[in-house]
Amino acid sequence: MPKYSDSLALPSVVVDDVHKTFKLRHTHSVKETFLAAVKRKQLTTDFNALDGISFTIEEGEAVALMGFNGSGKSTMLKLISGVIVPDRGSVMTRGRIAGLIEVGAGFHPDLSGRENIYLNAAILGMSKKEIDERYDEIVAFSEIEQFIDTEVKHYSSGMFLRLAFSVAIHTEVDVLLIDEILSVGDEPFQEKCLARIRELHDAGKTLVVVSHDLDMVSRLCSRGIVLRGGNVAFDGASAEAVALMRA
Ligand SMILES: Nc1ncnc2c1ncn2[C@@H]1O[C@H](COP(=O)(O)OP(=O)(O)OP(=O)(O)O)[C@@H](O)[C@H]1O
Question: What are the recorded GO MF terms, alphabetically (predicted)?
Fold first, then answer.
């Protein structure tokens, strides 16, 4: 993904006329696929998940991506993080990006919590020294000290989330992408995460948040972008975006 130079005062994220199409399969088995091919039936149809999306996020902004199920929010976050690329258009980002997109996506089930902290923090761009310095803080925030040497395949989904979240928010990031993951943790942990996210925002980090918890996102983010039918239906004050979602 192209990146702006870090030395210039430019926006954090520039999404320009982004299109993303997925192929939807219409066959289930090898036999069906074979028969469809023989009958020259179309095996897939194109689905335009994002159909010409443009927006710019300035450094230090907190932006909520809103929209109903399937409107393309997670796809947009994955494009910003660089996990997937657009079919047309461009996504440009500046600075280090950490995505809390798929909980523990970089976690290895056969490694312990401790080993996964090192692995994931390294993936997120931290040096061994940086991780050593933050290790205790990461573990303390996750509150799973007792299980830190247990293989993560034995963790509950909430424990997994705690560790993944803790690693991500203790890395040196410029842009933090957060997808719905707060809903997995229990309420005290959610509150703690929100407080930490606010701290990061106050420290000038850029936030892009996806959540169906409209009250939470409108408190956290001043700006809301509503996606609908693959397009931007609204881009403005988050309170107005929430009103549109509830209309
Ligand atoms: N890899 C894929 N292959 C096929 N279709 C996909 C793929 N990824 C996403 N889609 C489709 O693209 C559309 C947008 O999905 P996306 O996950 O971005 O929506 P969302 O707004 O995050 O939804 P939700 O609120 O339900 O999480 C959906 O219709 C989804 O089925």
Answer: ABC-type transporter activity; ATP binding; ATP hydrolysis activity
Dmax (CA) for the chain in angstroms is 63
Q: Is the CB of 7 under 6 A from ligand 1?
A: no
Q: Given the structure tokens 């066959």, which residue do they identify? A: 27
Residue 78 near residue 105, CB atoms below 8 Å: no
- Atom 7 of ligand 1, nearest CA residue: 22
Per-residue tokens: 246: 């509830």
By alpha-carbon position, which residue is closest to atom 26 of ligand 1?
A: 69
Give the position, in ligand 1's atom list, of the atom nearest the Cα of 75. 18
- 166-184 b/e with 16+ CB inside 10 Å = b? bbbbbbebbbbbbbbbbeb
Sign of the Cα torsion 130, 132, 136, 139 reads: positive
pLDDT of 1 reads 44
**pLDDT tens column, 16-69:** 999 999 988 766 677 777 777 777 776 678 899 999 999 999 999 999 999 999
Q: What is the DSSP letter of 3?
A: B
Asked whether 70 lines ligand 1 (CB < 6 A), one says: yes
Q: Is 13-246 CATH 3.20.20.70?
A: no
180 vs 103: CA distance, rounded Å: 9
**Geometric angle at alpha carbon 14, from 207 and 203, rounded to 5°:** 30
Find the 47 Cα to ligand 1 centroid distance in Å. 10
Tens of pLDDT, residue by residue over 116-152, are 999 888 887 788 999 999 999 999 999 999 999 999 9
| Predicted complex ipTM exceeds 0.90 | yes
Give whichever of 95-109, 137-151, 191-205 has the largest mean pLDDT. 137-151
